[in-house]
């Protein structure tokens, strides 16, 4: 087979935290460059106070979770939420039906252990409304480490949402024609954290996959903003720099080019999701992305740990699908239908988990 050239590497647009936290500062140019119609869909934030320590504290626990005894992990699973709380491995399906056997995830709401006590809501929106599960006996330090980092990523994400609102307002040349992204996200009770552990390729059950999406398939997130840490790589429990410069997060650009994106290990990155596109009336665009595993021979024992926070509207927020909407066409969501965000995501989950539609 012909050897394909690796995709070019592009540096994410970076905003210093000091600028981001100044609500009066005009960051429209940076937002446009990162998230606008021609942007790659990623912005990283530098010098966030306290972030490097919280990142390391949590990411070092990812392999510990993944290596808990099988019977313990079973207890930490929550099939009723379609594995959207606690431990999940091999249950999710992105991109033409590939199950995520290469990665294990730990999902939790970093703000609220019990988002609601209303049974009707728990039944209707299980992936958001069921309670958190923690390995209290086997890994007690996980809960605090997860919540502390999750809250910080949310705080910074809300500041970023404020500047996104300002950008959209400038584009529309007037007061916001719709809901403010910042206010919608600030009142949500269902932000979701995901601690990810990518198993070393050698140990995965399937044969080595050299494709760009070998560790995580192509998808767009349905949240509004996804906070992403710089991943931690380890070989046999020793932290190492990523051994393959071609591995990691890849994005499909607006003009359909695949690029590998980079940011520094002490920066916190955000990508846009489908509900940022919907709520901003298309001024911000969702970011198609995937993750490539290291492919060189000596990278075979390398694992990858990272954290994503899906900053998203509450389950009952009404969202209106625009008529020109490129995502999830097969779900046949009628254009201009207004549906609750929780309903929208349950329909997508039906597709991602075990193909039930
Ligand atoms: O591992 C990563 O860097 C990205 C994970 C991701 O895209 C997701 O969990 O939705
Ligand atoms: Fe994602």
Automatic annotation (TrEMBL):
Leader sequence segment: none
Q: Which GO terms describe its molecular function?
A: metal ion binding; oxidoreductase activity
Q: Which UniProt keywords apply?
A: Iron, Metal-binding, Oxidoreductase
Which residues are in the Fe2OG dioxygenase domain?
A: 190-313
Q: Which Pfam families match?
A: DIOX_N
**InterPro entries in alphabetical order:** DIOX_N (IPR026992), IPNS-like_sf (IPR027443), Oxoglu/Fe-dep_dioxygenase_dom (IPR005123)
Task: Report whether Cytoplasm shows up as a keyword of the record.
Answer: no
Belongs to which family?
Belongs to the iron/ascorbate-dependent oxidoreductase family.
Q: What is this protein called?
A: Fe2OG dioxygenase domain-containing protein
Organism in which the protein naturally occurs: Urochloa decumbens
Q: What is the lineage of its organism?
A: Eukaryota, Viridiplantae, Streptophyta, Embryophyta, Tracheophyta
